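Final report, Chapter 2: Outcomes

The project's central promise was a pipeline that accepts a single protein chain and returns its three-dimensional structure in a standardized token representation, suitable for archiving and comparison. That pipeline is now operational. To close this chapter, we reproduce one record exactly as it appears in the project archive, with the input sequence first and the structure output second.
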Amino acid sequence: MKKLSLKTGVLSLLALGCSMSVSAQASENDGTYQMTGGDWQLSVNRATGTTDISKNQVILRNQTQPSFKSGSTIYSGSQLTVKNIEESDLNDKFGTGKQLQITSVTENESVTLVQHFYLYNERDYILTEFTIESAEELESNYMAPIVASGSSVFLETSGNRALFVPYDNDQWVRYKSENFGNTVTSYEVGALYNPDSRKGLVVGSVEHTMWKTGIVYTTTENAMTRLEVYGGITSSETRDNKEHGAVKGTKIKSPLVFIGYYNDWREGMETYADANAIVAPKLPWDQGVPFGWNSWGAIQTNLSKKNATEVADYFKDTLVPGGFSNDGTVYIGLDSYWDNITYTDLRSFARSCKTKGLKAGIYWTPFVDWAKDPNRTVEGSDNVKYKDIYLYANGQPQTIAGAYAIDPTHPATKTRAETYLKRFIDQGFEYIKLDFMTHGSLECDGHYDKTVYTGIQAYNQGLQHIIDFLDGKMYINLSIAPLFPANYAHSRRIACDAYKKMSETEYTLNSLTYGWWLDRVYSYNDADNMCFYGATVGENRARMTSGLVCGMFTVGDDFSSSGAAKAKELAETCLLNKEVIKLARNGRSFRPVEGAAGDAAADMFVQRVADTVYVAAFNYSIKVTQPLIDFDRLGLNKGTKYVVHEIWRDDISQKSDSWEESVPRYDVKLFKIYPGDLGSVDKTETGSRFICYPNPCTDRLYVSNDGFEANYTILNASGQVVKEMSDSTGILSVADLEKGIYFLMSKTAEGKVNTATFIKR
């Protein structure tokens, strides 16, 4: 370890060359200590301890220093005196490199602050954190590794945006992209970026065991004038009624903070996610993305064994044979009101699903008391009352959405969890949806476990108990839940409730626009129930595509005998598209091509698979739109021939440059773009431009008519006309046809003729 003597001087930033490995050097004549790691430079004022942070000699933060609260006193700046600066080798879970350690003390030297900067040989970001230490017990609910008051310009002169990331997905909260010129507070992670150049600064916590982390940035038109990253944030966004809990001990550590500057802010968000996964790896899952159904989509409170069983039968008989499954696996999920069904019937239902080749799912709220009955005995406990396990704030039970929050650290809460989870496992359920999780992360007057000081610390303990007890026996999906921690579940709802309308699709995709990267910390992002009945054909396609671009397919219509027959017809129109299902089995979220202004959703999302680019272009408006499919923004090579296959309509064309595409109102177009000449396309692989499915069919045939009226003629194998009809739904009845091979001819009012072949079985 190298120790440097203290000298005062004027703060300045020297032009430093980049190095492929981390190095350090001291400047003896200007009062600064300089350290270089790859493209990164740190410049520390020995007198004040403030640090300039630069990448490729562009100052991202200047006059940066830590700040903390001890008791009721906040310490920062002149209240801290630098004692020494040390440099040493680094080898941790992120890799090898160098660390810089700055040690300071308070005025009376009662508290020692040690800040670390970590620079890695193989990482394009840096990390920072600090500890406070004292001979006597400390108490702090505010620790800020970054407080930067100096102005810095690292983006373009105009058009820059500041990203708001919500703490959780409750109460239909939206991500927001705010214009520069305001103060924005984001949760756990934030970004400052230019939508045109895509350059961006990404900052956030990569630890979520003790602190709720806030990122506060103040900007002018083209500059960041202040940045504060701190553990200890609470607000209405965190659903809290109290200040953040105070951490106690003779040594207390801040959150570990990520700092990255990228040519593409989207890459920065993904890299931030990967850093989180290094600290807390994903909960293991090797069985592929779940396909399934959830009762809360349409049946809701009317759930019964009868209608759930009939839905399972419909999947077994129609949807799974038609291709709606991931390697034959489909989950049939019973949501809230599963207690309408007896214990015995639940077990019978789960076992019946298994005999059908399906898997049964269940729903539960581990940190919630919906009854709000304080004198009830907690299930599985020895006469512990619910009032004993509530999370109180200022002496009152805390509520969100009309339900009391309960203490994840209380032994009775844990035995309650064991009681329910054992029941579900014994009954044969293999999937569990855990809802209203934010309740368990609330700050409170005090937890049962006195070594737990904060809401997120308690939340971690409660979730750890759940996954330990389940021991891999169930797939875990979080519904309403904080963004982090992410290592206790296989998937998380990317937004709040959504069903079928275009407005709900747009709301869901607002969260995907800025949260697509979450499938790097969870296995999958969940788009919620996809329902079709009661919406237009275009809205159906858009809702289905929203599930595709998020990563999970959960259907929600009532497919029982009491449900509308039309629900099945509309569902099959979307759910049996083989190209869509094939792509959906990847389970990967699409990136936004661009961001969006304010709290809107992006209208275009992209995913690259090898040399194939998939693009989903949404139209949320009541008017036809003509978005630009921009080769440059998609990473396609101008002048190269690409086959463009619009999957929903099975329309194939040739492109070698950007083009404007017409998207109907309340609809979507889904493109598969790959290098090749249209003349060499194998139509048996891509399908004809006019498709009908399922093929073979039984009583219904679905056609890609885009919702326009068309005249249909069906001919038998001998060329004789056997049936004629007009239709605009895209659903043709063929129940009256005999078994055999048929030709289908469609003619629109504009005179366009399409043909296809199908088999009636």
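Archive annotation: The domain at 17-279 is CATH 2.70.98.10 (Beta-galactosidase; Chain A, domain 5).
This record, like all others produced under the grant, will remain available to the consortium after the project formally closes.
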